[in-house]
Amino acid sequence: MSISNTLAVPPLPAVLLEPLVRNALVEDLGRAGDITTDAIVPADAMAETRLVARQDGVLAGLDLARIAFELVDPRIEFQPRLADGATLAPGAEIALIRGPARGMLTGERVALNFLCHLSGVASATASIVHSIREYRARVTCTRKTMPGLRAVQKYAVRVGGGSNHRFGLDDAVLIKDNHIAIAGGVRQAVERARAAIGHLVKIELEVDTLEQLRTALDLGVEVVLLDNMGPDMLREAVRMVDGRAITEASGRITPETAPALAATGVDLMAIGWLTHSARVLDIGLDS
């Protein structure tokens, strides 16, 4: 499941991250702030803590954790020991944090919520990437993201060694079964889409059968989404395409099923649960 510690994934701009963290802190602080910490911890108390991994995985979301502490109290000093993309083992020190104890305890949960979740996404992605490392297929995410977190979840997929599918409804055409049903058929749906979009926008068509795939190839779509096909059918579909379009498998792909699907020669493997259902990675704030 490991990936390189020097994985070249550009960090997301702070201007994009700061509003996410700020909103999370506002939600947590409510109308009166951290009444527990303010009652127990003296205002002048200082502390030193560490973010520590408690299980194997891949780190992602460190900038959001840093921003959480800094927004609560700018005097908090956040010293990262690792970078996003680092392979974690239990006990690995991720960051050293020094400064006012109140701010540290108040920002802890929001920082860990982002860090544990995004590290879980990166770790789940890395597990799939590792399982198909012998094949050329790439792992990609979907639009099945948590509201408001799409940019950071897709970032975590990249940190885990995966690729991103479209970011929204506006940057690529993906014609699915309901579009086809309402349009009256595959040909009608593709022709209407092609007449409406700009020349830089790609068309991807979801197909469930080899007959639909033949139609898609006749229409010259750029990408075919081969939905819920087993290895044998998927292999035949890849053979039929023969390089005329990008092939993308989808449907119930796990680290256990991925190798057999990747062995068919498919180009991409779209996996929705990487963002909507990945388990958090256990990371703690230890004093």
UniProtKB/TrEMBL annotation:
GO terms for molecular function: nicotinate-nucleotide diphosphorylase (carboxylating) activity. Its EC number is 2.4.2.19. Keywords: Glycosyltransferase, Pyridine nucleotide biosynthesis, Transferase. InterPro entries: Aldolase_TIM, NadC, NadC/ModD, Nicotinate_pribotase-like_C, Quinolinate_PRibosylTase_N_sf, Quinolinate_PRibosylTrfase_C, Quinolinate_PRibosylTrfase_N. GO terms for biological process: NAD+ biosynthetic process; quinolinate catabolic process. Residues 121-286 form the Quinolinate phosphoribosyl transferase C-terminal domain. It catalyses: nicotinate beta-D-ribonucleotide + CO2 + diphosphate = quinolinate + 5-phospho-alpha-D-ribose 1-diphosphate + 2 H(+). PANTHER family: NICOTINATE-NUCLEOTIDE PYROPHOSPHORYLASE [CARBOXYLATING]. NCBIfam families: nadC (TIGR00078). Involved in the catabolism of quinolinic acid (QA). SUPFAM superfamilies: Nicotinate/Quinolinate PRTase C-terminal domain-like, Nicotinate/Quinolinate PRTase N-terminal domain-like. Belongs to the NadC/ModD family. Pathway: Cofactor biosynthesis; NAD(+) biosynthesis; nicotinate D-ribonucleotide from quinolinate: step 1/1. One of its GO terms (cellular component) is cytoplasm. CDD domains: QPRTase. Hexamer formed by 3 homodimers. Residues 34-119 form the Quinolinate phosphoribosyl transferase N-terminal domain. This is Probable nicotinate-nucleotide pyrophosphorylase [carboxylating].
